[in-house]
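Subject: design request, 292 residues
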């Protein structure tokens, strides 16, 4: 009967949920060893100036490779790291790695690096000072660092929001720029713009990629509006997940300054980024689907 079938489906679903929970519990346990075991690495994706194709910055993206060579995607382990609190230690490691890499990337190539920072990290009243210490230890100016935050930063509580804003302000007072990541997807993105000290909007990939390719009037209107808002507020805009030349051309035509995406380059180890920078020629355009 239908009822019986429904019951069975529910049982199957329940077992799947249970299996996923077990797997997640194992991942959280593994994550604690992974940091000490050196299983994490930072990859960099170039951010280019659309008008010239010059690499001006790079986004640091965390990678986790298990001893057996398999990789776990950030979308799978970062939410778990957030829930378990492991993101604070892992994020601290990412920042230390980035500041060390910046001593070459910034001093030799004038690059800035943009780093994803979790709401948990910003809740630590010593966060900003720890970042400034890392910058100083590596003789890197604050202007070489961009901190990316998402809307989760202020959601948690009023106390956290005050601490987080203060941390961001301290960083900004020292030249560090603040970017709002995935802009256009959060229900309260506009509220963040009003409350937080912000320098850069990162226009979410899901928001730009396919739509702009079609050139649909309504979709272009949203992109134009974000770019216009950016201009009025004196912010820079980085378009994310640009996958084709058509998208890059349209964004350039619409006045968007900066972009990143598979059309330009995939995230890769720092050595690959340095190779691209040292060639000094035009930026190698890597086709979608190719592996770096
Ligand atoms: P995000 O910060 O929005 O990063 C951009 C994501 O888009 C990256 O996924 C990048 O590999 C991917 N991407 C780049 N170009 C393209 C493109 O042309 N098309 C498409 N479809 N995707 C593209 P990734 O590396 O898997 O990271 C996923 C998310 O994990 C990041 O999204 C960020 O929210 C989070 N994350 C990554 N590293 C860190 C980290 O060190 N700390 C924290 N807290 N979060 C991180
Ligand atoms: Mg990001
Ligand atoms: Mg993003
Ligand atoms: Mg994202």
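Subject: RE: design request

Done. Sequence follows.
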């Amino acid at each position: 009967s239908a009822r019986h079938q429904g019951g069975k489906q529910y049982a199957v679903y329940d077992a799947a949920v249970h299996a996923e929970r077990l797997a997640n519990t194992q991942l959280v346990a593994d994550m604690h060893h992974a940091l000490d075991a050196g299983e994490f690495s930072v990859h960099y994706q170039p951010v280019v100036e659309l008008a010239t194709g010059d690499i001006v910055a790079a986004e640091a993206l965390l990678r986790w490779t298990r001893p057996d060579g398999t990789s776990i995607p950030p979308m799978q382990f970062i939410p778990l790291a957030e829930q378990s609190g492991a993101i604070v230690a892992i994020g601290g490691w990412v920042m230390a790695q980035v500041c060390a890499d910046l001593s070459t990337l910034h001093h030799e190539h004038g690059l800035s690096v943009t780093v994803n920072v979790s709401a948990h990290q910003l809740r630590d009243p010593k966060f900003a000072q720890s970042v400034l210490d890392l910058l100083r230890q590596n003789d890197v100016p604050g202007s070489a660092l961009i901190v990316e935050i998402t809307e989760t930063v202020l959601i948690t509580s009023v106390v956290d929001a005050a601490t987080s804003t203060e941390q961001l302000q301290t960083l900004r007072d020292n030249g560090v720029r603040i970017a709002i990541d995935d802009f256009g997807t959060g229900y309260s993105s506009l509220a963040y713009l009003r409350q937080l000290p912000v320098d850069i909007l990162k226009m979410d990939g899901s928001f730009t990629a396919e739509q702009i390719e079609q050139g649909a009037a309504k979709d272009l209107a949203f992109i134009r509006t974000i770019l216009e808002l950016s201009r009025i507020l004196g912010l820079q805009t980085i378009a994310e997940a640009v996958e084709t030349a058509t998208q890059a051309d349209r964004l350039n035509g619409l006045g968007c300054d900066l972009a990143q995406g598979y059309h330009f380059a995939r995230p890769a180890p720092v050595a690959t980024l340095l190779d691209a920078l040292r060639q000094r020629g035009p930026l190698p355009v890597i086709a979608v689907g190719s592996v770096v």
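Residues 192 and 290 are 37 Å apart (CA to CA).
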